[in-house]
Amino acid sequence: MHRVFKSRLKMNSICLPNGRVCRFIDGRLLTDIQEVIDYCEAEIKNGNPQIYADPDEFEADPKLEDPIEKMRAAIRAELIAEMRATNPNNDAGTTEVQKLTPQSSAGIAPIMAGGGHSSIQDRVKALLGENNDPNRVNK
To answer: For residue 61, how many other CB atoms are within 10 A of its CB?
Structure first.
C-alpha cells in the first residue's frame, strides 16, 4: 500500500531539498518512499495550503490506480458475485487439494503402459504381427 497525499491543484509538483521532484497526478500523489512521506507531512504541518492528507483516503493500492486494473477488479468482483448467486454450493477454490493416491499398483499398470482399453499383451501382439515390410524378419 502507498501513502496518498492530495493537492488542491489538479496538476502540481513539489521539489524536495535533495532535488527530487514529486508530481501530483490528477491532484493525488501516491508514494511509499519514506523521505517523500516525511517531507509532505512536514509541509502539511507547516501550513502549506496546496498539500493535504485526506483521512478518508489515507492509503491506496497502486495497482488499482491503473484504469485497466480498476476495470478488471470491478469485472472480477461482479463475476464472483454472479457465480456465488447462481451456485451457492460452489466453493470457489477454497477446498484443499490433496495428492492423488492409487488404490493399488494393478490399477496403474495399463495407464503407465500408454493407457487405452487394450492390455499390454494385445499391444505387443499388434506390434509383432504381420508386417509387409520386406526388410523385417518376423519368424
So the answer is: 12
- pTM for this predicted structure: 0.46
Scanning the structure block, which residue is given the C-alpha cell 458475485?
81
Distance, C-alpha 107 to centroid of its chain: 38
CB atoms within 10 A of CB 37: 16
Express each pLDDT in 23-49 by its tens digit: 988 888 888 899 999 999 999 999 988
Answer for the pair 36, 22: CB distance below 8 angstroms, yes or no.
Answer: yes
The C-alpha cell that represents 2 in the structure block: 502507498
Partner residues linked to 12 by β-bridges = 24
Asked whether 9 and 49 are in contact (CB, 8 A), the reply is no
Q: How far apart are alpha carbons 59 and 138 in whole angstroms?
A: 79
For residues 64 and 17, is the Cβ–Cβ distance under 8 A? no
Q: Which residues contact 43 (CB under 8 A, 6 or more apart)?
A: 14, 51
